[in-house]
Amino acid sequence: MSEGVSQTAPQLVLATLGGSGVAIQIDTTLFSVNTVFRACYKFTDCAYVFIGDAKDGNLIVTLHPKKTGQDSLQLAGELSNELIDQKIREDLAHEAASVREMIVAQAFAEGNLLDEARDEGDYRTDTEKIGRRR
Amino acid sequence: MKPETKEIIAPILRKLDAAASGRVRNLPLASNVYSISALTDASEAFSAFCSAQLARGDDGHFLSLAICEGHQSDAGRIIGEFLNHLLVLSISDRLWSDG
C-alpha cells in the first residue's frame, strides 16, 4: 500500500456470495438513499439488486448477475462509478432547483392548470363574473 | 468492516445467497429503504408466481417468499425479479412523496 493511504481504507467489495453475487457497503454520509436507489436502478437490467441496512448507518447493496459468467466484481466497480454520477446529478439538480422552478412557472404562467373553467368555460355562464356590474 | 457490522449483515448475505437457489425466509427489509406500499404492490404483481409473507420486526419488516407449484425451477429468477420490482416501486414511491 502506498504511503499516506490509510490501512483501514474501506474495501469496495464487502463480500462475494456463493452464487457469483457480490455485496458492497455504501456510506450514507456520502450518498443519500435516493442516490443509491437511482444508481441501483441502472443495474436492474443485468443483475438482481437488493438494498439492505447495515444498522451502522450504512447500506449494503448486493448484486447477483442475471447471466452466468458475468463478472460481478466488474458490476461492483460500475455501481461505484454510477453512485458518483447520480450524486453529481442530485447536487446539480439541487443547485439549479430555483432556476428550474422559475422557468417552469414562467412556461405555465399563461395556462390555467387549476381553474379549467377560466379557459374552457362558456361566456354565457360567466364563471369569472366579468359581465357583473361594478 | 466493523465486527458488529459483519455480525449483522452476515445473515442477510446468507439469506440472499440462498435466494439464488430459490429460498427466502425472513429476509430483513429496512424501513428506510423499502416502503410497505411497495412491498404489498410487488407481492400483488408476483402473486401468480409466489406468495409473499410480511412480518413486522422492531426496526423493519421481514419478507418470506414461497414459490408456487410449477415455478420451482425458475425460483431464483422469480425472487431476483421480485427484488428488482420492489426497488422500482420504492423509487416510484419516493418520486411521488418528494413531489
Give the % helix of chain B.
40-55%
**Major sheet: arrangement of strands of chain A:** 1-2-4-3
Q: Which sheet architecture does the biggest sheet of chain A show?
A: 4 strands, antiparallel
Tally of helical segments of chain A = 4
Largest sheet of chain B: 3 strands, antiparallel
Strand adjacency order, main sheet of chain B: 1-3-2
Helix content of chain A: 25-40%
Give me the Rg of chain B, rounded.
Answer: 14 Å
Write the topology of this structure.
The complex is a heterodimer of chains A (134) and B (99).
Chain A: E1 15-16, E2 22-26, H1 33-41, E3 47-53, E4 59-65, H2 72-95, H3 97-107, H4 116-120
Antiparallel strand pairs in A: 1-2, 2-4, 3-4
Chain B: H1 3-19, E1 24-30, H2 36-45, E2 50-57, E3 60-67, H3 75-98
Antiparallel strand pairs in B: 1-3, 2-3
Helix pairs in contact in B: 2-3
Q: Care to describe what's here?
A:
The complex is a heterodimer of chains A (134) and B (99). With 134 residues, chain A is an alpha+beta fold. Helix content of chain A is 37%, strand content 16%. Chain A contains four helices and four strands. In chain A, α1 packs across α2 (72-95). Chain A is elongated, with a radius of gyration of 25 Å. Chain B has helices at 3-19, 36-45, 75-98; strands spanning 24-30, 50-57, 60-67. The chains are: A alpha+beta (134), B alpha+beta (99).
Keywords:
heterodimer; A: 134 residues; alpha+beta; four-stranded antiparallel beta sheet; 4 helices; B: 99 residues; three-stranded antiparallel beta sheet; 3 strands; 52% helix
Brief summary of the model shown:
The complex is a heterodimer of chains A (134) and B (99). Chain A has 134 residues and is of the alpha+beta class.
